[in-house]
Amino acid sequence: MSLNWITEKELNEIPFDAFLLLEECQLNWIDEERYADAWGLALRAHPYVVWAIAKRAPQKAAWAERMLKHGKALPPADTQALFQAERTLLRAYEDWIAYAVNPEIYHRQPFLQWDERELTGLCDFAGKRVVDVGSGTGKQAFAVAPLCKAVYCVEPAWSLRRFLRERAEREHVKNLYVADGLMESLPFEDGFADIITSGHVFGDSPDAELAEMLRVTKPGGMVILIPGNNDCDNAVHHFLTDIGFAFGRFEEPGDGWKRKYWLTKG
Ligand SMILES: C[S@@+](CC[C@H](N)C(=O)[O-])C[C@H]1O[C@@H](n2cnc3c(N)ncnc32)[C@H](O)[C@@H]1O
Q1: Closest to 115 (Cα-Cα) out of 250, 256, 246, 259
Q2: How far is the CA of 73 from the centre of ligand 1 (A)?
Q3: Ligand 1, residues 114, 131, 201: which to mutate, most atoms within 8 A of Cβ?
């Protein structure tokens, strides 16, 4: 199901070359089992993208070559069929495409208007060093910055790192720092953070992600996932509550009820 963050009109104006802007990690996350014909047609028309993928994400080089070969074996396609193939792929990866071409597309989404007290009321942030993982356009980080000593935003997308820095400058936030990194490999020493916050990120590799967040959290510190899950008892919920995370519910405007989770490191 599409996220529909990008309007049809905006999507029609984004060239397929937007895939050249993606990060290595994003290219590595492409699902090799899906959209073979669309990839085939698009890469046949833009073979330099195969070259760029191989340079940026060597793990995907063989897949990209395979898709190009598949494309060359497909029957000729008219301009409309090629356009449709490109739209299919841009829509399929519209979150990464939106971050890369215009972070404002994410930043304007109504669900980001959830009440920040759902986060700031969970613990005392005064004097604390906070690490926010997968910061996006800064929902969690900018909510806690006025309360804490410093907040370190970890964000793998270059365009969002730039957005965070520019937003901090615009809003005169002086205690916010921005770094490249991933939840499963944080660029900090053991026990660096009093509090880790993260929203809409946890869950692809739960064991590795949690182990890394706990490594970076001080004994007695907290890990807070907000939003950490949809409002249901799914695998992520059982994983977190079995370990001892407490949880609560809150509403994201236009996107329904979500869950937040928090754990004090023993
Ligand atoms: C849906 S956005 C959430 C942004 C923000 N935390 C919020 O709640 O609005 C997900 C963000 O996490 C980043 N991200 C995705 N996978 C990640 C990972 N494994 N580690 C760290 N960040 C990740 C993306 O680049 C994106 O900025």
Answers
A1: 250
A2: 37
A3: 201
